[in-house]
Amino acid sequence: MYLTKLVTGGIPVLSGWNYAGGNYEKCLALKASLKLENTTVLDVAYVASGKVKPQGTCITNAHVSAPLCRVQFSTQTSETSEVRAEAWLPDEWYGRFLGLGNGGLGGCIAYDELDYGSSMHFATVGTNNGHDGNDGRAFLGNDEVLNDFAHRSIHVEAVIGKQIVEAYYGRPHDKAYYLGCSSGGRQGTQTALKYPEDFDGIVAGAPATDFNHLQHWRGMMGRTIGAPEGASSPAFIPPALWMLVAAEVLAQCDGLDGVRDGIITEPDACTFRPEALLCRGEGSGKCLTLTQVDALRTIYAPLYGDGELLYPRFDPGAEDSPLFSGKFPPYPEDWLRFAVLNVTDFDFSTYGAVEGRAMEAVNPGGIATFEGDLSGFRDRGGKLISYHGRMDPVIPSGNSKRVYDLVARTLRMPSLDDFYRTFLVPGMGHCKGGPGAASFGQLEGTTTKNLSSHNILLALVDWVEGGVAPDTIVGTAPDGKERTHCRYPMRSVWDGENFGCEN
Ligand SMILES: [Ca+2]
């Protein structure tokens, strides 16, 4: 694991002083010398450490841990669109480029991951995904903003970012990596499909792939328990009752994996029976009405339309979900209004299959990201690591299996192990968190050990640069316990003492 040594290696702290002197001037000189296509350099500053003012309106301050040169820039992507971005160029650079993704319908530069990447000695670049803020209003009537959102911002990040890196360090990067989760996982997947040369290695977490159907599924999840009517709908399940449902799901399925630990290792093995909570007579608030039972049967079943699978089912165990608030969920709401229909107002009390079909038919910016032909990325030697929490309350983990199988069928490859590995993480929520061993270096604040065995970004580096593919990834739980996560289609199996991976 030589790369691990590089990352943790013994660089004397004081060497920073020598670096800082020269780098300070070199950094400031960039402002005048950088000449990039369609790009305006907004600001260049040397930052030793501490808080800095971010671009945009998403957050109020950002943190810098490692001494670096911060370049803020804007790239015009059409007459009506631009991508705002930043490059964080650490003093102690190991020759690697890192591009970052975004989340939700944002609009928000991933400042936490800029800090993470640069402190791991990557020259790290993040963009605002072509608009500011964490909602979809910027899409209204602007197809170019949608193009940025769907695929172009990450390409800009790679192309312009690499030029900035070369200008600053005086030589090109050696290898280029990408890190993102949720929307960022979709962006990484889309980039591998559409711009296979941009990155040598990609970490695509909880990817929001098959994006239009995902939004429709979210909308239908909300509708199933009465959104947007909320508590006045007979199908509505209030939070206290959801806790009862979650407890019953565990009672029925926690033990299937051999250990009653509050974690359902394989949610797809859980056939939840909501009838167990059925009220004997009138509803009492501590049991389910027939209407509520019917709603749960729909929620724990895949979503079909016209006989076709539209999206895999909600993961049993992920009941603490924002989709069940009784309000129509904000992402499908904004996506339908501002990206698909181009209207500011829409009556979501009639939302249904028609709107789902409209999302898929319009497919704004070609965002769907549900194609299996990764041959371009495979053939140029690219490596993709995906991961997905199995308690993900907003993107069913079954979708990552489905995408893996789609790629396998499309490429006629029974196993994708040579270039594409998907790790399924029991007990992890959306991108991070949950009772499971959900920390493995996938995002800022999730690193427990700087080892490629425990850090998915370092595992990717080992794969790309050392040819050592990760067979497993070890995560750490909030209580400090570790668990080995398996790559699909291997199964996580309890041997009486530990979980291991079996075919
Ligand atoms: Ca269990």
From TrEMBL:
Q: Which family does it belong to?
A: Belongs to the tannase family.
Q: Could you tell me the superkingdom of the organism this chain comes from?
A: Eukaryota
Q: Which reaction does it catalyse?
A: feruloyl-polysaccharide + H2O = ferulate + polysaccharide
Q: Quote the protein name from its UniProt record.
A: Carboxylic ester hydrolase
Record key words, sorted: Calcium, Carbohydrate metabolism, Disulfide bond, Hydrolase, Metal-binding, Polysaccharide degradation, Serine esterase, Signal, Xylan degradation
Query: What class does this enzyme belong to in the EC scheme?
Result: hydrolase
Q: Does the keyword Oxidoreductase apply?
A: no
